[in-house]
Amino acid sequence: MTAGKGALIVQSDMTVLLDEQIETAREAREQLLMFGEVVKTVGSLHTYRLTPLALWNAMSAGVSWQNALECLERHARYGLPFTAAATLRGWGQRFGKLRLQLREGELVLGGDTALLSQLAQQKQLADWIKDKTAEGEWVLHGHCRGLLKQELTRLGYPVLDYAGYHDGEALDIGLRKLTLRGRPFSLRPYQAAAVDRFLQEGAVQSGSGVAVLPCGTGKTVVGLAALAGVGAAALILASSHSAALQWRDELLDKTTLDISSIGIYSGKQREIAPVTIATYNLLTRRATAGDEYRHMELLTKRDWGLVIYDEVHLLPAPVFRMTASIQATRRLGLTATLVREDGCAEDVYSLIGPKLYDMAWKDAELGGYISSVSCKEITVPLHPSQRKLYHAAGGRGQLRIAAENHNKLGIVKRLLRQHEGKPALVIGQYLKQLNDIAQSLNAPILTGEVPPQERAELYSRFKRGDISVLVVSKVANLAIDLPDAAVAIQLSGSFGSRQEEAQRIGRLLRPKAGSNKAWFYSIVTEGTKETQFALKRQLFMMEQGYVYERMAEQGEAEPVSEAGRPTS
Amino acid sequence: MRLKEVAEKLTEEQLLNCEYFWLKGSVEGSLTAVDWDEALRLAASGKPLEELSAAELQVLQLHMDLHGASPVEEEALVVILRERSALTGAEIRLGLDALERGGFLFALGKAWGERFIFAPSDLYAALLPCLLPLSASSSPCCGDVYPAASLQAGQAGTGTGGTLPLGRALLYGLSRLSREPSAGFTAKGVLSRKMSDRLERAFPFSRDALQAFGFGVKEECGYSPSVALLLEAALGLRLLIAGDKGFCINEVALELWLKQDEQAREIELRSWLCDLIFPAAGAAAHCGARMCRIQDGSWRRVQDLYAEPRFVDDIAAGEGREAVMEQLQYAQNWLDLFCECGWLESGYIEGEKPEAVFRWRPFSHVIENEVMLQPDGEILAGPQISGSIRWQLEEIADRVSDDWFTLYRLSENRLHWKLGRGAQLEEIEAILQNISGRESLPEAVHNMLQQWHQSWVHKGSKRSSFCGIEKSGPQKSGESLQSSYSSQPCFLEIIRLPNQQRSQQFPGIPQQTVPMRLEQDRAGLYRLEINRDMHHAFSEKIAAVPAMWLKQRRSYHPSTSRELIAKAISLETAVELSLEGRSVLFIPEATEQRGNEWAVSGRLYGERKLENHVLGPEQWDEIRLVLPTEAANGRKRQ
């Protein structure tokens, strides 16, 4: 540890390097994470990026741009480059300059008049302006509320939306004090805080926004409480049919709604009720590429007072477009990560709403709401039999060879021995590799091909402890009914998906009896493309304060068959 | 040209006979003993100016105000200084003579007798604050500063990163040249388009920044402005030599250059650039010279760089405003140029009327080798690393981005390139270990390099016949290098004078281009002129004048008056007249015949300014010839 030097090196292109060897690095990191995003955390010098969205989200949550600037100035080793300081200040000063309001039934964009007249030159905005007031405010066409916010955010000007919401069809709903299953129920403090922000009249985040909570901390409960607070018919959009069923179960268990008030609108059932749970899949289904999204009319089919977007980081682009047209309806996004692999973060901000609550995973861990997960990356050399193939292969081929490195099996076996008796998941991307490993470990395998009944049977055996190791494919990423485990060993994944890594770790987060500890291992082939992807995958967890301990191993040689497959 | 360069071209006779202020006190007037930085500091203190007479000082002030460090043809200069001041021709000539003898100004002689008067660019910059002080002091300003071209509607307003400083770009460019097999000349004697494009990518530079000062790229070389500037700078700093087949790196000079800290390298380049531009910029140089005098990195107002013109007595108010606008444009041109070179940041302070401000970017003046080698093969190099480490990094890794920290990445291709040129893997590993200050390489990096090495071996491990461009090491003698430099090409030329419009009004501003360096005068038309000792010649002329004409104001017969007036015109001096009972100074310019009468036209000094008058001999009672040394006193009395 070095003392006396600043831990941050702020570059003029808005990247920030954090020197982890400096005494004040931890303090600097904690502050930086409030308004910056992690890009890379390799070695001792970690890379972060400052973006307008990250800053505006922080400002929505109460951090001022002056705080951000002060943090950078305090920790910067070489001072702040002029362009970086000015850019950050510029972003910060834009926040709050434009406000949408509803005045005598008209949608009015007001705020900084000089800015408004400057923006009026933008052709793409002109069509939405119906009239201008004497003060230079814009009277807008009612339909453009979402589109305007989206476009202005794209132009670099966030809009604070105070135009309010329509009430929607009234719904008699309350939260139970004792769940249907007979357990006492109340909101945890952070859940209550998130719901309060959503319901708080007049605040930037009220009525629309995104609650970011770690996996396993009860995001669904936040949704239920928000629904009870709004007291209106609601449309809940879930990521899969099984997730939709879990929403229904939770509604029945923890609210006063009965089954007749809840409808499931998915590929298998098409019910529309005061509270309707639909899947993204169905909403975006259409016969051919040129067809309309027929099921999208569900968004306007009933007078919804609230739309809940579960796993909002997965929201497909067509749903965003439709969301732009329902800006007068309250919207709540729920997610464990705001990271969008498709670059649609701006749309989440402008169309669903700003981040209204963010709970750091480490805070949840400290509060005992989730288990304490130790993350380790184990690097192993490529098995000698695969090296020639690797050098001869193309990009994707190389990644697959690295992922299917035969040396990984020995490590898996050692780790399972180390954690014997603890429920463990071995997770991977490639079915062939998973089948080979399942065979070698003599463990059952769960893939998308396994029928639901057989799957349920596997789950219950795993829960009971009849089987301690389950080999799973990517179906495990979002299978909410997957039983909790204490150990997860990741063999491979979808390129550099940060979401996937977070979801997989999420499998371990349910609080554990005793020491409340869990272990996540990622086995990576050193010196190959896989190392780069692995680093990218870890970013979100790093951002949440998790530190990946890195270990290099030589690999435990496994006999290899003539076909190149481990035989043991 | 800089003072030192000029001085080195002076003959022994000149050095012995003149009283150069910068040579005083040095042992036996020897140039080798002169501390040139000290000489410039002395000039900047204003002390040498105290030795000048009022007329000499005014000549220097006026010449610098109008022409900066630009060479001006002597006769044209006398004409314009006469027009723009109350000085007589003799005062101007003797003043110029004294300034040449004192080492403030020098003359370049052209083959057929023309003389061009000029001040060395660094001496000009040092003297400027004393000669033309500004009423408004340039003090640091405070307030939030915004980048000049940011925060407009429709822009995402993302930080764009800093502009690469010219010194670093030059280092990268030279490194690139040294690595490229295509760095040789084409049949046209220039770099190939491919090589030129590569250099350009290393240093994007706007054509406008140089064009604003009248500079363009020589058409025959076909380079872009950035490439021309990089090559010109490399040649100017003698880091590169143009041979017959291609460029050659001067290894001795390069080593010394790389040893300097970054601030020293950038300031040396800035001096070089000013030396290139000042002689061509005339009065436009003032803003640049004033900017260079600012030592710290605080924000300064652009408007503090210029002031109302000092010599506007005879300029109408409208023209004065135009002159201020011109100064503002000059200031903007310098801002643009220095920003393009990555040395300056410009912005504005918000207010009722936004104020344009600028500041010098800080560069490191210490060397601290902060290099971090990451396990994924990325190398982060701090801003204070030495030039030689930067050079090594350029050779062994790919540069990904450049900002405060420069990001390099080890790559298979670069390793293969380096191995192909004879390097051993162990050698490369040792370099990495050494520059990152580690006891051993991260295991992942070691493994990665091993794998790449194996794949190189696997591919057949061919060594390239190209081992970099020619390098002139210590084996090349100083003399031979000197002769190489005397025939170096230049890629930038003056295509248009920046103050051409004004030069049409004031013909003293050079109309033709004088070579920026004597070495570039291939035709040998120019030489440094010896001072002609005008004072002695003038004294001889005065000795032939009747003593009474000088001693006492008297009433003469009109024919004698005419003779006296004719003598005054030929000596370019003034006469003292008794006019309506008052004693006035009159500078006669020409006599004219009006029927049987004659008259003299000239300028009459009255009410503290000159007025054109035509006087007949009947209009004055008494007349006296005034020596130049007396003229100043006469003006004071009036």
UniProtKB/TrEMBL annotation, chain A:
Catalytic activity: Couples ATP hydrolysis with the unwinding of duplex DNA by translocating in the 3'-5' direction; ATP + H2O = ADP + phosphate + H(+)
Taxonomic superkingdom: Bacteria
Keyword ATP-binding: yes
GO molecular function: 3'-5' DNA helicase activity; ATP binding; DNA binding; hydrolase activity
Domain Helicase ATP-binding: 200-356
Domain Helicase C-terminal: 411-559
Keywords, in A-Z order: ATP-binding, Helicase, Hydrolase, Isomerase, Nucleotide-binding
InterPro entries: ATP-dep_DNA_Helicase, ERCC3_RAD25_C, Helicase/UvrB_N, Helicase_ATP-bd, Helicase_C-like, P-loop_NTPase, XPB/Ssl2_N
Pfam family of the protein (one): ResIII
Name used for this protein in its record: DNA 3'-5' helicase
Keyword Hydrolase on entry: yes
Family: Belongs to the helicase family. RAD25/XPB subfamily.
Species name: Paenibacillus oryzae
EC numbers: 5.6.2.4
Enzyme class: isomerase
From TrEMBL, chain B:
Protein name: Helicase XPB/Ssl2 N-terminal domain-containing protein
Lineage per the UniProt record: Bacteria, Bacillati, Bacillota, Bacilli, Bacillales
